[in-house]
Amino acid sequence: MAVRTTEGLSAVPGNPGEFTWTGAYGTQFFCEPKERLVAVVGTAAPGKIRKYYREQVQYMVYAAIIR
């Protein structure tokens, strides 16, 4: 489990208080209390491409938030 404690230190969008877990083969869970957002992602990505997919999913989720 990882918890974001400050702004600006991550390669992906998010706010302090966000918590996340990444699993085998690219699976991912993240919860962002400030935005009232929960995402569960199930993928089967081999090798280093897993990190790319995790980051892209998080970018797309945050880009879809409508204020």
Set out the fold topology.
Blueprint: E1 2-3, E2 19-22, E3 28-32, E4 37-41, H1 49-63
Antiparallel strand pairs: 1-2, 2-3, 3-4
Protein name: Beta-lactamase
Organism: Bradyrhizobium yuanmingense
InterPro entries: Beta-lactam/transpept-like (IPR012338)
Explained architecture:
By secondary structure, the protein is α+β, with helices and mostly antiparallel strands. It has one domain. It contains 1 helix and 4 strands; from the N terminus they run E-E-E-E-H. It has a 4-stranded antiparallel sheet with strand order 1-2-3-4, covered by helices on one side. Strand 2 (19-22) and strand 3 form a beta hairpin. The protein is globular, with a radius of gyration of 12 Å.
Give the biggest beta sheet: 4 strands, antiparallel
- The ordered string of helix (H) and strand (E) elements is EEEEH
Strand content: 15-25%
Over the alpha carbons, how many angstroms does the gyration radius reach? 12 Å
What structural category do the secondary elements indicate?
Answer: alpha+beta
Number of domains: 1
H/I helix tally: 1
Shape: globular
Could you tell me the number of beta strands?
A: 4
Give the end-to-end Cα distance, rounded to a whole number of Å. 28 Å
Poorly predicted segments: none
Major sheet: order of its strands? Answer: 1-2-3-4
Q: Indicate the mean pLDDT.
A: 90
